[in-house]
Design goal:
Elements: E1 2-3, E2 9-17, E3 23-32, E4 42-52, E5 60-70, E6 77-84, E7 89-97, E8 104-113, H1 120-131, E9 133-141, E10 151-160, E11 164-168, H2 170-173, H3 178-190, E12 193-196, H4 202-205, H5 215-224, E13 230-238, H6 253-271, E14 277-282, H7 289-294, H8 299-310, E15 315-320, H9 330-342, E16 349-352, E17 355-356, H10 362-373, E18 379-386, H11 391-407, E19 411-416, E20 432-433, E21 439-440, H12 442-454, E22 458-461, E23 467-475, E24 477-485, E25 488-497, E26 503-508
Parallel strand pairs: 9-26, 11-12, 11-19, 12-13, 13-14, 14-15, 15-16, 16-18, 17-18, 18-19
Antiparallel strand pairs: 1-2, 2-7, 3-6, 3-8, 4-5, 4-7, 9-23, 10-22, 10-24, 20-21, 24-25
Helix pairs in contact: 1-11, 6-8, 9-10, 11-12
């Protein structure tokens, strides 16, 4: 290893030959020796310098990983990251750096190539069959007076137990315009979970200190809850300074703690038992405003603990970006989740935003999911979008990432970040179009096909004998069975197929 001294950059691997367009995974251990005066903690950064035959300087710098909020008390910390090098890259140098006046040690640097998995889709389909389905057995007993050839048993899945939803504009759900009504009708037809894009955020609910406005969220919930929609509360607080309510930004530690406590109390008093999830402190790996203000490096723990004490019906989540769509914060998120669980913090889910600014790379995503799953904490995809101008690429990108996520045993739900071109953060991620008559576009049709055809169970059974049993696998969810004789329905039966509970139904004709 070589060190550049004052620049606090340590070269740990130098001019390593790489394959053009190759995918690589890097890991090392870093230990801080000190914290600079006046600082709570520091960030360690892993950069790659990509060199080609035409490169005359140090090479193109690309960030592989960041580990924020490190202190000497943490000891040796595992830092990992990945990269796909450029098409003309021939060599790669990897460097570690931190803030000025910070000393650190690096150990066990290791670089390995990520092998491209050409069979990932077939493997994913096998996992889906294994983890998202259960066994259904239909035992048919037909009396002598009936002809088996006229008996038809239709089994239809009505809904999925796997959470599938989208973020929504709260105001549009109770709006009176034709566009609002079309938006709401389309949403209710195709989704079972919702996240309010902005209306639940603290700075919007309480723009003025002491004056919390519940009406927008309340009116939207009046549409969602009666229709059986489960809702994620996004979010109680947000760690970035620009996302903190303006009236709170100049407050001292006591005022901040009192305001946070009141925020949690107000939500619990007003929405007890309403929300399925809360994102407790949004994007905390990217913003430590509350920790700095309170001078408590574990202040987020108190947010979780108080939220759990005030409403024990809701699951409490972390929520962050660049933890799976990119590998920059993947190992940092793993560390955050593990450390919070070790401290007894009730983290129900690791929320993975998944804003895909480029085409999803299944090999890199698989590696990142593996790292996050090491926490043992369930994963929930909270803000998925695939931003592609080319509609065909967008369609394939959504299909690939949904198939990968749905096939992973640690993923417990998927929320996309909007669907309608007229009401979405990025039009290049839209799945539906039209002003008053909203329809799936090409990408939306692909997504819709997955959830309503490929990943939905429908069976039509025709007995050939007086006594016969039919066995098949179905996706977990709610079902309806219809027994028809000579074209007319004779009996209807509803049932649920749950994980770990196979279904056995006797049908007597």
């Amino acid at each position: 290893m070589s060190s550049t001294g004052e620049s606090l950059i340590t070269t740990v691997l130098e001019d390593v030959p790489v394959e053009k367009s190759g995918k690589y995974f890097f890991s090392c251990q870093v230990k801080l020796v000190n914290v600079a005066p006046g600082c709570m903690w520091h960030k360690v950064i892993i950069n790659a310098l990509l060199k080609s035959n035409r490169t005359r300087n140090a090479g193109t710098k690309r960030c592989m990983a960041q580990m924020p909020q490190m202190t000497p008390e943490d000891g040796w910390v595992d830092i990992e990251g990945d990269i796909q090098v450029d098409q003309d890259t021939t060599k790669m140098t990897i460097q570690v750096s931190s803030d000025a006046d910070v000393k650190y040690e690096v150990d066990e640097p290791e670089l390995s190539q990520i092998v491209v998995n050409e069979n990932w889709k077939e493997q994913a389909n096998r996992r889906i069959d294994k983890i998202r389905k259960g066994d259904i057995t239909i035992n048919v007993d037909i009396s002598d007076e009936f002809d088996p050839s006229k008996v038809v048993i239709k089994v239809k899945q009505l809904s999925h137990s796997f959470p599938w939803g989208t973020c929504v504009k709260a105001g549009a759900l109770f709006g009176t315009s034709a566009a609002d009504k079309a938006y709401t009708a389309f949403f209710l037809k195709h989704f079972k979970w919702a996240t309010f894009e902005n209306s639940m955020k603290w700075r919007f609910m309480t723009p003025t200190e002491g004056k919390t406005v519940f009406s927008t969220v309340d009116r939207a919930l009046d549409v969602l809850i009666p229709n059986g929609i489960k809702v994620r509360g996004h979010c109680i607080a947000w760690g970035k300074s620009t996302k903190v309510p303006v009236w709170l930004r100049s407050g001292d530690a006591k005022r901040v703690e009192e305001a946070v406590s009141k925020r949690i109390d107000e939500l619990a008093d007003h929405y007890q038992g309403v929300f399925a999830h809360y994102d407790v402190c949004n994007e905390q790996l990217h913003g430590d405003w509350y920790e700095q203000k309170t001078k408590d490096p574990h202040y987020i723990d108190q947010m979780f603990l108080k939220s759990a004490a005030q409403d024990d019906t809701v699951d409490l989540c972390l929520n962050d970006y660049d933890v799976c769509s990119k590998g920059i914060f993947t190992s940092a998120y793993r560390r955050q989740g593990l450390s919070m669980v070790e401290r007894g913090v009730p983290v129900s889910y690791l929320g993975i935003q998944s804003h895909m600014g480029c085409y999803p790379d299944v090999d890199l995503l698989t590696k990142r999911l593996q790292i996050l799953a090491e926490t043992g904490i369930p994963l929930f995809i909270t803000e998925l979008d695939v931003r592609q101008e080319d509609i065909e690429l967008r369609a394939q990108g959504y299909e690939d990432i949904l198939r990968l996520y749905f096939s992973h045993p640690s993923v417990h739900g998927i929320i996309i970040w909007g669907f309608w071109k007229e009401n979405i953060s990025y039009e290049t991620a839209a799945l539906a179009e039209g002003k008053k008559n909203i329809k799936w576009n090409q990408a939306g049709e692909k997504v819709h096909h997955l959830w309503t055809k490929e990943w939905q169970t429908t069976e039509k059974l025709r007995p050939q004998n007086k006594e016969e049993s039919f066995e098949f696998r179905g996706f977990f969810g709610e079902y309806e069975l219809n027994l028809e004789y000579d074209g007319e329905t004779q009996w209807t039966h509803s049932f649920s197929l749950e994980e770990g509970k196979d279904v056995n139904i006797d049908v007597n004709v």
